[in-house]
Recover the amino acids of this structure.
């Protein structure tokens, strides 16, 4: 098997056994990026030299018998909204941060480095993580490796595509309303959004602070568990990160959850759900039934009708605040042509931000304005509480909730860009989990006739990632979706 | 509308820097003389991706202040973002507490001209300070120093219970004294550690329903001295009065609302910054990066138990317990360390009474502090040393003016009063024989004053006593000298 086809866990074993060197692993990733990225455009920046240097150092330490960490020598891709002080830009795929170099490492980047990972590049995304197709990148659109005319989903489309096309075995993304799970579904990989507070947000450039959460992309559940293991845990620099021990996810992964009661919300199988996606997801539910699980119909009355509306008020309000700092004064893009200070603010932001970012800043600014706050933001917080109660109630009787991750498989590029509302509905099944701050994962559960991946979303309560991963693993063992290779990889190799 | 005299109605927002070692939401040092932009980190620079972490000490100090003002500490306080664009505010929002502050209610009794008046407190809350923006004189550029960005700032908002410029000043001074007493802030005015924003309006009689009518509220921003507070408030009161006289119907709160004004210190006048229409919409947002503050009751009780006696209470006690005049009590309690020193001094002194001790404090100890511009803890003399020298004067061992000299020498040499008096042979003499001879000599050498006294001019005696004291080298007991002189002149 070619090095690049190894999962992170197998790569890790080979590295420890010294059957594989970190330099070989890095080179395999760099070679795949060189070969595939010009067509897929998953990476905004790569650092082949830095990665090789780092791999050499890891090899030395491994040769010396040192314990280099969980990810010793494993290539990892990182979404470009996580700060790296390695001299590479951290852009959030925005013109406004095009040349910004972070003076510090994000907590997750520190963790990756402590665990011996080799960061091979920063991945493309919708600008400031606002979007569901990665078409809102300020630089270029990323292509879906399964069909280059289609989107990879978003906002973490670059990380999803990088893992799907085997340019890196694992990658970090961030999820605010579905930005890990939806692209994972559309690219046929595993994408996990941990419980809010499980992974430190320090150094993750904020979109919507009360929703943002960093999580892993991988081809297998085991690899996702590995990357979560390496990045989860309390960080005193993030007041919302929870001081709770991180279980050993890998140790229990193989243990099935029995008995298993699966909640199937009626609301997740309503209007707007593509028939082929529904059939595929129902097929996955049948697999669980075959394993002895009990399927229970449940209701999440507030979680689809209101989730999108609530999400787009909470997220845009916080975004309008978080993005106020990009004003051209202290860092980032400053317009070269301005009459005075206010003009400098306006032109810098006008030139630096893309349309979707501007749209959301305006929505959020409106929702927080005097006279509108109670009707929008405050009301949204109340509905958010109801959504959370929906889930709390459901988890009193079921172990997890399952349904489609996204209402459709990957859509064509440009198909939804003209109609933002249609685009927003891509998050219809994922946003409620973010609002409820619970854990969720999307795993591959089959393909459409056109050969596009379909994702099964599994949700479970706060800080139950250990069980969530075990449940996901039960299905994965029964199927073999991860072994399929996107056509572009076969063509190119 | 009634024709009653307008009543100035003033509420005050006071900002003060808390005496913490580090900033409100990061570990940068709070320093005032560091080179520009040298006490900064990604967090206080508002870089992408950073998160604030609350400074617990700042919360403790804020609770301390709120409790000292008699306020209550709610079970739940939350942080909010207050948005406005300005280059000295890197995030373009300030983290503050909007509708659920750390402290609610309370009051401050403020002494002024021998009386006290009470100012209600609406709230006490925490926020972060902004940086400093400086503009080149030619207008070519502006530069920003972000060392101050993120400095913990306490805001105390009063009820509109202040009714004159003098009261506004006195309230500010009393609040400063309290903050220093509590160790909450250093309140160094030159360093900008305390700033005042009075909200001024005049109550202009009542409307037909009997409700009070007011002139529009003007808020004066960023006053940084007591002088400026007093003058700016006086200016505004006069301006409101004039505007009201010019247009009694139109110049009303319900028509014009609230405006924001600046103060030009050199021209001694205010100017309009923003009218009601131009008022900012701060778009407050609950701060999602911080968890709410839920003060542990036990902790609050500990902070309460650790409160010192407050200045106004102590001032009253000095009057009642030590029988001091208002003035002395005010002077001695203005500084907590001075008041502590005084009380210890009175406790130690064997025969110096409280009033005499107050005189020693004001005439000798505090004079030295003022001359040297030092705090009482910085001088080499303790309450026991002052007690020793004043006891010697009361006992008649040395006279009062020698006592002051001895005190000065104690400061310089570090020697005890006993040693100095002994070494320099300063003990006063009451030896009648020696003093009689001196009296005879003085009368003989000063026939004029002697004659004046005999003819009834009592004042002339003072000159003769002075001469006698000089002749004795300052050692004569002035009381005995006086008796001898009177006896000789009358005899």
């Amino acid at each position: 098997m070619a090095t690049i086809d190894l999962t992170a866990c197998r790569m890790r074993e080979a590295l420890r056994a010294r059957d594989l060197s970190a330099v070989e692993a890095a080179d395999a990733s760099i070679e795949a990026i060189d070969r595939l990225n010009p067509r897929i455009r998953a990476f905004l920046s790569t650092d082949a030299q830095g990665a090789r240097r780092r791999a050499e150092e890891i090899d030395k330490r491994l040769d010396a018998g040192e314990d280099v960490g969980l990810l010793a020598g494993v290539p990892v891709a990182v979404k470009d909204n996580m700060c790296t002080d390695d001299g590479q830009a951290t852009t959030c795929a925005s013109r406004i941060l095009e040349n910004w170099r972070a003076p510090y490492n994000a907590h997750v980047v520190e963790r990756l480095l402590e665990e011996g990972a080799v960061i091979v590049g920063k991945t493309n995304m919708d600008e400031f993580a606002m979007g569901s197709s990665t078409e809102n990148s300020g630089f270029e659109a990323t292509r879906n490796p399964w069909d280059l005319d289609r989107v990879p989903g978003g906002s973490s489309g670059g990380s999803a595509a990088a893992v799907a096309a085997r340019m890196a075995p694992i990658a970090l993304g961030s999820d605010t309303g579905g930005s890990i799970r939806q692209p994972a579904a559309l690219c046929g990989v595993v994408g996990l959004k941990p419980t809010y507070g499980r992974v430190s947000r320090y150094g993750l450039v904020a979109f919507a602070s009360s929703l943002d959460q960093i999580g892993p992309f991988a081809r297998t559940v085991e690899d996702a568990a590995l990357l979560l293991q390496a990045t989860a845990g309390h960080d005193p620099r993030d007041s919302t990160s929870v001081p709770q021990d991180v279980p050993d996810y890998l140790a229990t992964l193989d243990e099935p959850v029995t008995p298993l009661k699966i909640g199937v919300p009626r609301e997740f199988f309503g209007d707007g759900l593509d028939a082929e996606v529904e059939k595929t997801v129902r097929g996955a539910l049948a697999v669980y039934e075959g394993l002895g699980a009990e399927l229970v119909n449940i209701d999440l009355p507030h979680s689809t009708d209101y989730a999108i509306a609530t999400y787009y008020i909470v997220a845009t309000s916080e975004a309008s605040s978080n993005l106020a700092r990009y004003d051209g004064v202290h860092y980032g893009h400053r317009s070269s042509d301005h009459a005075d200070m206010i003009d400098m603010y306006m032109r810098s932001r006008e030139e630096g931000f893309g349309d979707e970012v501007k749209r959301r800043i305006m929505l959020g600014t409106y929702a927080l304005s005097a006279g509108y706050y109670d009707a929008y933001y405050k009301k949204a917080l109340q509905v958010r509480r109801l959504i959370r109660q929906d889930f709390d109630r459901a988890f009193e009787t079921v172990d997890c909730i399952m349904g489609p991750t996204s209402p459709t498989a990957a859509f064509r590029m440009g198909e939804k860009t003209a109609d933002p509302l249609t685009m927003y509905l891509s998050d219809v099944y994922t946003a409620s989990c973010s609002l409820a701050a619970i854990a969720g994962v999307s795993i591959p559960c089959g393909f459409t006739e056109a050969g596009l991946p379909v994702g099964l979303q599994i949700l479970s309560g706060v800080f139950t990632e250990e069980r969530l991963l075990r449940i996901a693993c039960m299905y994965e063992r029964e199927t073999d979706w991860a072994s399929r290779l996107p056509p572009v990889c076969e063509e190119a190799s | 509308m009634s024709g009653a005299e307008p009543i100035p109605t003033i509420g005050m927002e006071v900002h003060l820097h808390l005496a913490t070692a580090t900033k409100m939401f990061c570990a940068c040092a709070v320093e005032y003389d560091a080179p520009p932009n040298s006490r900064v980190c990604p967090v206080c620079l508002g870089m992408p991706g950073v998160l604030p972490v609350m400074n617990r000490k700042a919360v403790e100090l804020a609770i301390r202040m709120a409790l000292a003002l008699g306020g209550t500490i709610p079970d739940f306080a939350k942080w909010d973002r207050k948005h406005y664009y300005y280059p000295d505010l890197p995030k373009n929002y300030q983290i503050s507490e909007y509708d659920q502050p750390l402290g609610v209610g309370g009051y401050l009794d403020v002494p002024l001209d021998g009386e006290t008046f009470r100012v209600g407190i609406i709230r006490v809350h925490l926020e972060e300070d902004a940086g400093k923006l400086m503009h080149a004189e030619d207008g070519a550029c502006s530069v920003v120093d972000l060392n101050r960005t993120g400095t913990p700032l306490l805001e105390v908002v009063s009820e509109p219970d202040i009714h004159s410029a003098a009261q506004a000043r006195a309230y500010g001074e009393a609040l400063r004294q309290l903050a220093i007493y509590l160790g909450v802030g250093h309140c160094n005015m030159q360093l900008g550690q305390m700033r005042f924003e009075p909200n001024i309006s005049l109550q202009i009689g009542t409307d037909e329903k009997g409700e009070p009518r007011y002139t529009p509220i003007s808020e004066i921003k960023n006053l940084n001295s007591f002088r400026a507070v007093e003058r700016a408030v006086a200016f505004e009161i006069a301006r409101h009065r004039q505007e009201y006289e010019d247009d009694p119907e139109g110049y009303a709160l319900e028509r014009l609302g609230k405006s924001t004004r600046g103060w030009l210190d050199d021209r001694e006048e205010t100017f309009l910054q923003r009218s009601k229409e131009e008022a900012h919409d701060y778009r407050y947002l609950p701060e999602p990066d911080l968890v709410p503050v839920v003060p542990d009751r036990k902790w609050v009780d500990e902070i309460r138990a650790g409160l010192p006696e407050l200045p106004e209470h102590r001032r009253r006690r000095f009057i009642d317990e030590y029988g001091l005049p208002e003035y002395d009590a005010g002077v001695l309690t203005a500084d907590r360390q001075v008041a502590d020193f005084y009380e210890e001094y009175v406790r130690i002194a064997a025969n110096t009474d409280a009033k005499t001790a107050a005189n020693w404090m004001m005439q000798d100890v505090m004079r030295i502090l003022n001359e040297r511009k030092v705090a009482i803890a910085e001088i080499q003399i303790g309450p026991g040393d002052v007690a020793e020298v004043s006891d010697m004067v009361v006992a008649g061992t040395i006279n009062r003016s020698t006592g002051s000299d001895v005190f000065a020498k104690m400061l310089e040499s570090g020697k005890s009063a006993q040693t100095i008096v002994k070494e320099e042979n300063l003990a006063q003499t009451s030896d009648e024989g020696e003093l009689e001879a001196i009296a005879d000599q003085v009368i003989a050498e000063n026939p004029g004053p002697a004659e004046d006294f005999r003819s009834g001019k009592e004042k002339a005696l003072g000159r003769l006593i002075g001469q006698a004291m000089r002749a004795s080298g300052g050692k004569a007991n002035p009381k005995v000298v006086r008796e001898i002189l009177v006896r000789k002149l009358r005899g």
Summary: The first helix of chain A runs from residue 8 to 16.
